[in-house]
Amino acid sequence: MDTTKQIRDMDDVVVRFAGDSGDGMQLIGDRFSSSSAHSGHDIATLPDYPSEIRAPAGTLAGVSAFQVNFSSRDIYTPGDAPDVLVAMNPAALKVHLNDLVRGGVIVANTAAFTGKNLKLAKYDSNPLEDGSLSGYHIYAVNMVEMVANATHNLNLKPKAIERCKNFFALGLLFWMYSHSKADTLKWLKKKFATKPELIEANIRAVNAGYNYGSTMRIFTTSYRVASAKLRQGKYRQVNGNLATVLGIVAAGLRMGREIFYGGYPITPASEIMHEFAAMKRYGVKMLQAEDEIAAVTAAIGASYAGNLACTATSGPGLALKSEALGLAIITELPMVVVDVQRGGPSTGLPTKPEQSDLNIAMYGRHGEAPMPVLCAFSPRDCFYAAYEASRIAVKYMTPVLLLTDGYLAQGAEPWRIPSEDELPEMDIEPVFGSEDFFPYARDEKTLARPWVSPGTPGKEHRIGGLEKEHIYGGVSHDPENHQFMTELRQNKVDGIALEIPPTEIFGDESDGLLILGWGGSYGAIREAVIRAREEGVKVSHVQVRYLDPLPPDLGDVLKRFNQVLIPETNMGQFRRVIQANYLMKPLGFNKVKGKPFRAEEIYEKIKEIAGEKS
Amino acid sequence: MDTTKQIRDMDDVVVRFAGDSGDGMQLIGDRFSSSSAHSGHDIATLPDYPSEIRAPAGTLAGVSAFQVNFSSRDIYTPGDAPDVLVAMNPAALKVHLNDLVRGGVIVANTAAFTGKNLKLAKYDSNPLEDGSLSGYHIYAVNMVEMVANATHNLNLKPKAIERCKNFFALGLLFWMYSHSKADTLKWLKKKFATKPELIEANIRAVNAGYNYGSTMRIFTTSYRVASAKLRQGKYRQVNGNLATVLGIVAAGLRMGREIFYGGYPITPASEIMHEFAAMKRYGVKMLQAEDEIAAVTAAIGASYAGNLACTATSGPGLALKSEALGLAIITELPMVVVDVQRGGPSTGLPTKPEQSDLNIAMYGRHGEAPMPVLCAFSPRDCFYAAYEASRIAVKYMTPVLLLTDGYLAQGAEPWRIPSEDELPEMDIEPVFGSEDFFPYARDEKTLARPWVSPGTPGKEHRIGGLEKEHIYGGVSHDPENHQFMTELRQNKVDGIALEIPPTEIFGDESDGLLILGWGGSYGAIREAVIRAREEGVKVSHVQVRYLDPLPPDLGDVLKRFNQVLIPETNMGQFRRVIQANYLMKPLGFNKVKGKPFRAEEIYEKIKEIAGEKS
Amino acid sequence: MIDIQSLDLTKKDFVTENEVRWCPGCGDYGILSSIQKTFASLGEKKENFAVISGIGCSSRFPYYMDTYGIHGIHGRAIPIATGVKLANPALSVWVITGDGDGISIGGNHFIHAMRRNVDVNVVLFNNRIYGLTKGQLSPTSELGKITKSSPFGSIDAPFNPATLALGAGAPFVARSLDRNMKHMSEMIRRAYQHFGATFIEVYQNCVIFNDGAFNNITDKETKDDFSLMLEHKKPMIFGKESSKGIHLDGNIPRAVEIGKDYSIDDILVHDETDSVISLILGEFTYRPDMPTPFGVIRAVDTKPYCKYMLDQIAEVKQKQGEGTLETLLSSGDTWEIK
Amino acid sequence: MIDIQSLDLTKKDFVTENEVRWCPGCGDYGILSSIQKTFASLGEKKENFAVISGIGCSSRFPYYMDTYGIHGIHGRAIPIATGVKLANPALSVWVITGDGDGISIGGNHFIHAMRRNVDVNVVLFNNRIYGLTKGQLSPTSELGKITKSSPFGSIDAPFNPATLALGAGAPFVARSLDRNMKHMSEMIRRAYQHFGATFIEVYQNCVIFNDGAFNNITDKETKDDFSLMLEHKKPMIFGKESSKGIHLDGNIPRAVEIGKDYSIDDILVHDETDSVISLILGEFTYRPDMPTPFGVIRAVDTKPYCKYMLDQIAEVKQKQGEGTLETLLSSGDTWEIK
Ligand SMILES: Cc1ncc(C[n+]2csc(CCOP(=O)(O)OP(=O)(O)O)c2C)c(N)n1
Ligand SMILES: Cc1ncc(C[n+]2csc(CCOP(=O)(O)OP(=O)(O)O)c2C)c(N)n1
Ligand code: SF4
Ligand code: SF4
Ligand SMILES: [Mg+2]
Ligand SMILES: [Mg+2]
């Protein structure tokens, strides 16, 4: 049958599945991504939940969506704007239509476009019929009826039939993009192993969707996205939260340390706790503490007792941990503190990403309390960032703050699983000091102090939050010692800069415009810069992983360019850091809308700046 | 009798009383200051307690001291180095000798220079006798014996006699500096009203000291410090903590608001709580909360309910309040948060002052969470700073952070009590918005929203930590609204700058060196600058009260000078703020020794810089 | 103080424009409705209510109550409410909180409010789960429970909130159920009338993450056997046929059949003011051999915090005289410079 | 596990070089001495002790114990200790805290550790005042008490720490006295031997800010009449001549004279495992008509948190196989690109 269709080759496609919270959009989104990934595309995905747990069915607040970008090239983001919108009900159409590219495809489930649902979605008339969508390609199908027909001899209740409609949509999309159904059929068999009637129903729904595409005349074309030239290897999908956990557990295994996680639920960091909780076979000890303060102080205790300790949270929780971080700093205990940033201030926009915790990460502690601050660029990069944060923590005996955000946390990408020897080495040398044991003895290079766990005979010692005497570690009120130790703590953090690799510049090494980013804006900036460069704009890109200390060559790099633009989803926090450090005034591009940058926005900004120049 | 003594006139004198914790040094220090102040000197005082509650008698750790600077001129600090050291025991001598000016006077109580005490003070031989003090004028008196003689017919127990020795020392100092005893004799009668035998014993001790001075040949000279040309008026002594409380209560009375204080004890801020607790006749409601989070959130609740709310703490407590401040910011409720800074990080040096909480004050909250930050210059200035903080809080509907420090908190000065109409006006206009009541309506000028207390009929409304819809105040996830409100909150704080008076420059209006200070370094800087200017050095002084927003003219002022020096008792936190704002690189003068700057140090630094230049 | 006649409030007066956004079927709806109805009937002016919450599904409550209110931050509803009440003691201040908000992160404020006897009314919606963050353990989740944060079963023994409150010295402790709106209403009224801190634990069904947690006390067949409806000065009888009761065997409480070995006279009589009885009752929760007590577990009159505070201020004013700006600034030791 | 013979520890082994810096006469000295002595006698290796504290006079304790230790931050000793214990369950972990550190700012951690039954031993030095910050109210200060923060008398009703612990579900609760070193030592030993969370409240005299707070139970003349020394399975007898006892009148406990209307058989027999008895005993504090109970108020065996944790890890390892870097990275759905 498929032979009759016209096949058009495309570089990449963005599909957004949208429907009611109960319509199973996350599920088919995930299936579609998986089949794309398995067939060798580079992909990036992003779920978009409603902030309510279960908003009333059919309402605008209840719409749940999942976006997949799949491509024959390297891609960096889940895509700015969908090429295809699957709208399972009027509310889904209403909420997401604005994002659809002009001339894009709408696949709509007409069964849900009832009077009641149209009203709930605040439509006066049926948009599928009133001509208001004339700029788009509309494929309107009564998916429920189709499934009913395909399953008529299975004796399913109407509710059960209704439930399969998402797999009809999935089948249809498989056809449209020449994806194989095989994986999904296998998956269904495993998933519903104990419920054979559901296997059959859903398989029929997938097939019905697929066949509908191939037999109906309305679909004149299907598309094919070639496989990406991905590096050879074994792949899996990870989102940022999972990758963070994998990075820390890998580091712990690598350095032969047991892992302790102290956590407290908070959106969008909770999943980190869930993943740690599931890591029992790796011996991970996880405490769901009574609050964030208990979580971080338990981590401090565990660190003292020799575990690789971690705690993760989001803004409000980081604020609560602030006092305890001072203790970790003065006791010089290793620990990884992850902050999955979300919209602030206060409870703010808890389900939306933002990069507005840089200030508190760098400066949010009383007294002189320096600690290294790192950030991750992409969902899979969270693995490497977390692994590196663990390495620095233990090597330098210091708590380390790792910034991710809600966008990275939930976004997923395929990740080529590194082999053991591809992982950076854990170049940590235990510090012994002189013959006698002194808890505040120093490694000359790293300034790390010894990490000796309770239970070790003969090395009993006490540490604490009062200023410590150099070497000996006793309480000291001596003015000169306080000056010395304050400087030492600063020098230790500053010293990490010596290890930071030279700044990688994407594009030209100097002149023109430099886009300087940090954290999760990486993908959008990179895409925009690639596009602008393809059009001949002289623009380069640097993304900073090490926020404190900054890369030692960064100041020189910045000064080599004519202009520097810093896009941030905050009011300019990193820009101020750059200003204070290099006494230069970069341009700011600041957006505080509870959304990550789209590549398009940055591209436009580049063009605007380039235009002004020319 | 007194007629035989030689009287030498002096401009100012610094006396330090030092002894064991149990020797009553704070008491006679206070008496001496009081008599100095009452006789028209300008004075400044500073207690210096041991960090233990009661260290063992006679030990170095147990020494307690009190310093008084009294002068015929305006003075700015309790003095760098004492001219006179009263040492009641060997430990006191040991601890404080280093500070004494070369050639200074030591008044020692020989009764305490026993073998045991010398050993406790780690002296190998008696310094009063071994010639090691040859550079000083030593007046060694067996004060206990003297008191015993003076009270022999009172039948006192040895312990009681011993207890009076501090008043002997006081009497002697009164004679040396030609102070009147009258006030103190009156005070003793009141203080011991119920214990007449103590009145008599102490009066005899004072007189014995006084007479000893006038009759003994060893005192060839006594000194006289003329009255200062202080402004006419009624005076009282205040330390920084008391002045802070007075400022807030005065503001509350002035604006007709009841006052709520939520606190939790912490050195050196506890006294603020004690003072508020004593203010019941002003209707002050004070809650000693279970922790700092409860203290600040109770203040938020009280503010919502219409009270002028305040909470005070020190570094570790400020860190704990960080999350709640975000709530105060997004709900736009007025509140004064006082941070009495001490040495950090963590518990750090809890009894020592430091200026290292500027970072957390300005940047220590998650999300974009701007709030005004002010600081106080001197103990008595705490009154005006706290009063101003209250005014800004209510006028703009915002929490305000006021930074003082342990040095200001405990230091005392005479304060000319302002009359009611000398106090700044409370130029606060209630915001009503349009006809209908909307909780997030705006005053056009200040951007303040209405402050309507529960209990007001017809204006029921809810506020909270989720992003708020402009005007209406409902929860809003709208991206544009979040951008708008984030900017609005920033603009509101920035807008305060319009009210900041032009920067006062002490010295030349441009050229040469500018010393830029903030907070408690005021006195030391001003003294140093005066001295250097007297010697012809081209140096000026600006002290900044408003740290966020900064005075709008500050950038211009700074650029008018050849060099800017920023002395701070931290690693350069304000310097970074200046760098980030004005893209210039001031010199830093940073000291982190748990001590405030001495005028001398700054003076030397000025000379050093001036020397380099010439 | 109260002029019931003149206030013509109905439930509607307490409904806001905000669309209620709990999951369909959530137990919170019933509680909201009970509270709105009861508030209207108390004879208290609408503007005198302040409803304060923290963060959680339950804590969205203030948005749906047309009174004054604060949707606070996680765990801090009680101190915020304390501030509101102390600032304006004339208000009727209510805290709506969840098992996570109220006794996980907010546990300290909870016990301190109870000991201080601060005059706020705390209503804790106990669904034994974290709803808003999508299904983690709460401090009232049972041992062994599988949740997102305990995929292999919980190893954290739970609190019994009533006992916790009693241990902290709470003067008023009650328990009710989302579904039993009449009972709920009665508890709210009792709390309103009680002078001082009150605590009502409400068992609330979370249909999404912990559905059926309270089935044994909501299912028609089992509920009478598993619930003990307390009434002051009445014997503690329960069971479908009211044939069972609580007997104190020395100091050990037992559920017994009335009629066989025990007569009605052997059954413990409830006394809200008896601290031992309340402690015994508190302990029943999570015990499979005992029914769950509902109603007022303890109600003792002790002087509340606000009263102490106002009395003390009045006394000091009496003694020292009402303070003015003049007395404030000129207090302490002063002197004149001429 | 323990080989007492081979360890030749004495009190001295637990003394550090640090000069002890409490006020002369402070009750803390006696407690320090008891604990040093007792630790030496437990048969536990010195390096296996970890002593964790918060901030306060009492919290300086770890500096004087030559063991592993952390002087933490205010109120957080318990979660720090929890982390230490979970990271290394072989350690004997002790928390030293004060009434402010432990149950004012640290109250939440305290109740949660008790409910979770985390295997740490909490020793709370209750001097009913804030010592280190020089004399403010603590949550155990009596109503009406004049302190720096309550110049007109406290209006905050105090906690009863033992009852609070019991209300939170503590499996082991005891009380002792700074001066009674033998008793103190016995309680420390009992706590050490108890498997799970333990709580010992120690009445401690602060000579500077609250001297004599416990006079009635330390003064020779009065102490026997005001203290009730508990012994498991023994009747609750007290008084100078051992002539008084606790009688349970229905459910109301009373102090009665033995001999007249009551015989020894009417006297309540202590049972550490009986939860009602422990609750009744807890309540006696601050009651003028009742003696203050000392000794083990409750001791019940329940599976502690660490055991649950280790068991669960072992079970999962058993089922899923011990994890490696390889299994970690390649978990979940994987595919090959060639
Ligand atoms: C400081 C902080 N930590 C964590 C969170 C995340 N959070 C929001 S609600 C909640 C728990 C809600 O549980 P519960 O109080 O039982 O309310 P429910 O949703 O079950 O009604 C958590 C952990 C937060 N908002 N703030
Ligand atoms: C976050 C924080 N808040 C407040 C303090 C100040 N502080 C130190 S100890 C203490 C109370 C001590 O009382 P308690 O625990 O009873 O110990 P004690 O000194 O009586 O032994 C306080 C409030 C602090 N160090 N940190
Ligand atoms: S998640 Fe549970 S508690 Fe929250 S609204 Fe839904 S049903 Fe109610
Ligand atoms: S202040 Fe009190 S508790 Fe603290 S050391 Fe002195 S006597 Fe002991
Ligand atoms: Mg809950
Ligand atoms: Mg105490």
Helix/strand layout:
The complex is a heterotetramer, with 2 copies of chain A (614 residues) and 2 copies of chain C (338 residues).
Chain A: E1 6-10, E2 12-20, H1 25-38, E3 42-48, E4 63-71, E5 84-87, H2 90-96, E6 105-109, H3 115-120, E7 137-141, H4 143-150, H5 158-163, H6 165-176, H7 182-191, H8 196-215, E8 221-225, E9 233-239, H9 240-255, E10 259-263, H10 270-277, E11 285-288, H11 292-304, E12 308-313, H12 315-331, E13 335-341, H13 358-363, E14 373-375, H14 381-396, E15 399-405, H15 406-410, E16 412-416, E17 462-464, H16 479-495, E18 513-518, H17 522-534, E19 539-544, E20 546-548, H18 554-559, E21 563-568, H19 573-582, E22 587-590, H20 599-613
Parallel strand pairs in A: 1-8, 2-5, 5-6, 6-7, 10-11, 10-12, 12-13, 13-15, 14-15, 18-19, 18-21, 21-22
Antiparallel strand pairs in A: 2-4, 3-4, 9-16, 14-20
Helix pairs in contact in A: 1-6, 4-6, 4-8, 6-8, 7-8, 9-10, 9-14, 11-12, 17-20
Chain C: H1 28-41, E1 49-53, E2 68-71, H2 77-87, E3 92-98, H3 99-103, H4 107-116, E4 121-126, H5 161-167, E5 172-177, H6 181-193, E6 198-203, H7 215-218, H8 220-226, E7 227-229, E8 237-238, E9 244-249, E10 252-257, H9 275-282, E11 292-299, H10 305-320, H11 325-329, E12 334-337
Parallel strand pairs in C: 1-2, 1-3, 3-4, 4-6, 5-6, 7-11
Antiparallel strand pairs in C: 5-11, 8-9, 9-10
Bound molecules: thiamine diphosphate (TPP) (2 copies), iron/sulfur cluster (2 copies) and magnesium ion (2 copies).
Largest sheet of chain A: 7 strands, mixed
Unreliable segments of 5+ consecutive residues of chain A: none
Bound molecules: thiamine diphosphate, iron/sulfur cluster, magnesium ion
Give start-end ranges of low-pLDDT stretches of chain C.
none
Looking at CATH, the homologous superfamily of the largest domain in chain C is Thiamin diphosphate (ThDP)-binding fold, Pyr/PP domains
Strand portion of chain C: 15-25%
Relative strand content of chain A: 15-25%
Give the averaged pLDDT of chain A, no decimals.
Answer: 94
- Find the structural class of chain A using helix and strand composition: alpha/beta
The largest sheet of chain C has its strands arranged as: 2-1-3-4-6-5-11-7
Number of domains of chain C: 2
Under CATH at level 1, the class of the largest domain in chain C stands as Alpha Beta
What's the gyration radius of chain C in Å?
22 Å
